[in-house]
Write a structure and sequence with these properties.
Elements: H1 7-15, H2 21-31, H3 37-46, H4 67-78, H5 93-107
Helix pairs in contact: 2-3, 4-5
Length: about 110
């Protein structure tokens, strides 16, 4: 295992900026230690390079949004204040999305 990066390895990491998971894995493979891609990420961060983290997503690929954000958008659609909808954020995600779609259809 490589514990010390050579100047050429560092140059390759710097050239790949901004790094992400795919680039880190490719560089680790190129350096000869594919199972240690986190080491590449760590080295990039140590060098002060930017690293684009993957945004969390659901299994169906949709982005994760806070229920409070959905309640805010519902309030905007209704022309209402969020304070009038206190407690709505405790509803299920599916229920909130269905409500938002219904309001959007009615307002169109």
């Amino acid at each position: 295992m490589v514990t010390q990066y050579t100047p050429s390895m560092i140059a390759k990491i710097e050239a790949a900026e901004p790094l992400n998971l795919a680039k880190s894995k490719a560089l680790a493979e190129e350096f000869g230690f594919p199972e240690k891609y986190r080491s590449v990420v760590s080295k990039a961060i140590q060098l002060g390079l930017s690293y684009d983290t993957a945004k969390p997503a659901r299994k169906d690929g949709t982005p994760i949004a806070k229920k409070s954000d959905t309640v805010s958008s519902i309030a905007k659609m209704l022309g209402s204040d969020e304070a009038d909808l206190v407690g709505l954020e405790k509803a299920t995600r599916t229920g909130l999305l269905n409500l938002a779609r219904s309001i959007a259809r009615k307002c169109s």
